[in-house]
Write a structure and sequence with these properties.
There is one protein chain. By secondary structure, the protein is of the alpha/beta class. It has one domain: Maf protein. Strands 1, 2, 3, 4, 5 and 6 form a six-stranded mixed sheet that branches. A hairpin with a 4-residue loop joins β5 and β6. α4 crosses α5. Keywords: Hydrolase. This is Septum formation protein Maf. One of its GO terms (molecular function) is nucleoside triphosphate diphosphatase activity. Its cofactor is a divalent metal cation. It comes from Hemiselmis andersenii (Cryptophyte alga).
Length: 171
């Protein structure tokens, strides 16, 4: 019978994911990439890759990297949780904005349109792994240039796929 553990490793830098685990009472420790790992390289989009396939691939790659990291660091075995959220307008993947102009471009692109927010989750250890995906359709109201400018000035778009946080001001 599978042995339950009272610890989960979270291989994510997202404060929101830590907060969600805290809210449901899951004891967790962060298992973040070291300086020697190319964490950003994992997130490079392959030419012609559909957003859902991209999100699933990146999440699986994050889990593989985290499993290797746990072993390399000699940490006790426990399940590892990884996730990735991708924002897509049609087949265009919107990553984290590089700067204010990039954030403005993304927000203008989504203004008055429906886009997809794709979240893939993978959990596992060396013996077994499971994954799931959620795809939400999100419709943005038409945004004025002034609204976009104010939102960017709040600094909220940075570090977030598609330049916004659905659980925050953008809602």
């Amino acid at each position: 019978s599978p042995r339950m553990t009272d610890l989960l490793y979270l291989a994510s830098q997202s404060p929101r994911r830590r907060q969600l685990l805290d809210q449901i009472g899951v004891r967790h420790e962060l298992l973040l990439p070291g300086a020697d790992e190319d964490a950003e390289g994992l997130e490079a989009v392959q030419p012609g890759e559909p957003p859902e396939a991209y999100c699933a691939r990146v999440t699986a790659a994050k889990l593989d990297a985290a499993l290797a990291r746990r072993v390399a660091r000699g940490l006790p075995q426990a399940p590892i949780l990884c996730a990735d959220t991708t924002v897509a307008v049609d087949d265009l993947i919107l990553g984290k904005p590089a700067d204010e102009a990039d954030a403005a471009r993304m927000l203008a692109l989504m203004s008055g349109r429906t886009h997809r927010v794709i979240t893939a989750v993978a959990v596992g250890d060396t013996a077994q792994q499971a994954s799931a995906m959620s795809v939400s359709q999100v419709e943005f109201a038409a945004l004025s240039a002034a609204q976009i400018e104010r939102y960017i000035a709040s600094r909220e778009p940075f570090g977030k796929a598609g330049a916004y946080a659905i659980q925050s001001q953008a809602a």
